[in-house]
Structure formats: C-alpha cells, structure tokens
C-alpha cells in the first residue's frame, strides 16, 4: 500500500510546485488563477495527509524502539 501512495504524493507535490511557479510568474487571469488556486489547495491537502501518515508511522516506530530499549 505505501508504494501506491508514494507516487500519488510525488505527482501531487510536483503539480503543486508547478502551480506555485505559475502563480509566481503572475500571468494568470482571475478565473484561471482561482481554478488553479482551488487545485493547489486540494493538492496541498493530499500532500499534508500523506505527510501526516508518514509522521504517525515514524512516531510509532520511535515508540516501539523506545519500548524495546527499556
């Protein structure tokens, strides 16, 4: 399962980076900009959820390691 999530994260993150570059160029009209902003928010949510999952796994591993060393 994690191997399937990773490409989604990478794809979402790359698209988010692309959108940021487009915003930084400042060439978007208002409607296109709003649509891309909505897309960016959704992508950021996908990335945050995945990072939260990974953080929880890391914390669980750290706890198990800590318990093991007691």
- What is the general shape? rod-shaped
Radius of gyration: 17 Å
- How would you classify the helix and strand content by structural class? mainly alpha
Mind summarizing the main beta sheet?
Answer: none
The DSSP helix count reads 2
Measured between the Cα atoms of the first and last residue, the distance is: 31 Å
Quaternary structure type: single chain
SSE order in H/E notation? Answer: HH
Question: What is the helix content?
Answer: over 70%
Helix and strand layout, with pairings?
Blueprint: H1 2-25, H2 30-68
Walkthrough of the structure:
The chain is built from 2 helices and no strands. The chain is an all-alpha fold and 70 residues long. The mean pLDDT is 89.
Keywords:
2 helices, 0% strand
Quick overview:
By secondary structure, this protein is mostly helical. Helices cover 90% and strands 0% of the residues.
């Amino acid at each position: 399962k994690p191997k399937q999530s990773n490409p989604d994260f990478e794809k979402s993150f790359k698209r988010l980076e692309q959108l940021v570059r487009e915003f930084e160029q400042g060439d978007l009209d208002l409607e296109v900009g709003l649509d891309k902003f909505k897309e960016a928010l959704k992508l950021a949510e996908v990335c945050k959820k995945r990072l939260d999952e990974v953080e929880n796994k890391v914390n669980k591993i750290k706890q198990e390691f800590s318990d093991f060393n007691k």
